[in-house]
Specification:
The protein has a two-stranded antiparallel ribbon. It is built from 2 helices and 2 strands. The chain is elongated and about 65 Å long. Helix 1 crosses helix 2. The N and C termini lie far apart (50 Å). It has one domain. It is an alpha+beta fold and 96 residues long. Strand 1 and strand 2 form a beta hairpin.
């Protein structure tokens, strides 16, 4: 069964973008746009001399860093889980 597609308009930095998305993703997309606009507003207060494109670039870098941090954390968690599994296997082997 094909998922339901939806066409929505998202406002980012006072510009509207039409998107065709899966219906199940609508809430996440709207929340992401809201977070982006919120961060742009915060940067605008601090860097009032910057234009919208500069502010958007700063927000993109901020989100990019978060993605890398999450990816690093996920990889570390995976390695730790693998080490725990190996450790249990070694302990079991020693007991036998």
């Amino acid at each position: 069964m094909e998922s339901e597609k939806l066409t929505i308009r998202i406002n980012i930095n006072e510009r509207f973008y039409p998107l065709k998305i899966e219906a199940k993703d609508e809430e996440k997309i709207r929340k992401a746009a809201k977070n982006i606009n919120s961060m742009i507003a915060k940067y605008r207060e601090v860097f009032s001399d910057k234009d919208g494109q500069d502010l958007l670039a700063m927000v993109a870098l901020q989100f990019g860093k978060k993605v890398i941090d999450l990816d690093d954390n996920f990889q570390l968690t995976t390695v730790v889980d693998d080490i725990k599994t190996l450790n249990r296997n070694i302990e079991q082997f020693i007991k036998e």
